[in-house]
Structure formats: structure tokens, C-alpha cells
Amino acid sequence: MTVWNIMEILRSVLKSILLGIPFIILTAVAMEAYQYNISDSSAPRGIYHLQVSNRPKVGDLVAMRMPMKTIAAVAGQHVRFSPEGVYVDGRLLPNSKPESNLVRRCPYGDYVVPFNMFLPMGTNNLDSFDGRYTCFETQNLIKGKAEPVITW
Q1: Same domain, 20 and 95
Q2: Full residue range of the structural domain in which residue 69 is found
Q3: Which pLDDT tens digits describe the chain residue by residue (152 residues)?
Q4: Pair 2, 75 in one domain
């Protein structure tokens, strides 16, 4: 076997792999157990495997009926919305300062997350449209806990 033959075999294999990737992505996204994230505001772009999550926890990345968000607070936790940012149980969340030109649903002040609700936050991008503006969301918006399969 010559070097030329080996190069042709390698090119053929590489071409097959590259042509197969879009098919794998489309197939995975078509299945309900996966979600394709095109926005980078809350999590890196990529494909995520969704797991049923009956009891979401702080820090869980969840796929919702809107872009994916990280749970910053759950029912019973204390949340303070302020011009400096969002505080959870007295701790300022990094990069949570709201932009002054965007409308917020919750006025500045102190709150306790209501039963069956959570505070969604984007942790991957400062410009995320998240709980700073939308306030608390109901858990029935969660499709599942998102585990990265492929990200970029």
C-alpha cells in the first residue's frame, strides 16, 4: 500500500465523519431527550441531554420552554433585586447587575421564592435576559435538567 492510497483512505474517512456530524446533530435534536442550544447567554452553544427533574436544585442547568437557564434560587430562598444586582440568601450573584434600559417585572426589593417557583439566571453571558427582568418562573416551564453532550 502506497502513501497515496493511505492518504485517500484517510480523506474518505474524514469526509464520512464530517458529513455525518450534521445528521447526528439533527437526529439528536429531533429526539425529545435532547435540546440544541443556539444561544450562548445561559450556557455554551451545543447539544444537551435532558433528564427528568422533579426536584430542581440551585445550580442545575435546565431546559425550559424558553432558552436554557441556571437555577439561582428555589422555593423558600431569600432573593433581593437591587440596582447592584441579584442577591440570593445575602450573597451577590456574579454578573447579575441589571441593565437600566430594560423593563423588570419585579420591583427592587426583598422576596422569598414562592412554592413551586425558581429564579432562572443566565451564567454564560452578561446580556442574558433572565430572572433579573422576568422575576420568578414556575417549575412547570422546566422540560428537564440539561447535561452537555457537545458544546462549543
Answers
A1: no
A2: 33-151
A3: 677 777 777 777 777 666 666 666 665 555 567 777 766 666 788 888 888 777 888 988 887 766 788 999 999 999 999 999 999 999 999 989 998 888 888 899 999 999 999 999 987 777 788 899 989 999 988 888 888 888 77
A4: no
CB 135 within 8 Å of CB 104: yes
CB 102 within 8 A of CB 92: no
| Amino acid type, 41 | S
Which pTM does this prediction carry?
A: 0.65
- The answer to whether residues 102 and 138 belong to one domain is yes
The closest of 71, 63, 131 to 96, measured between CA atoms, is 131
Distances (CA, A) of 145 to 55, 73, 85, 132: 10, 15, 25, 21
Q: Are 79 and 86 in contact (CB under 8 A)?
A: yes
Q: What is the dihedral of CA 95, 53, 78, 117, to 10 degrees?
A: 100
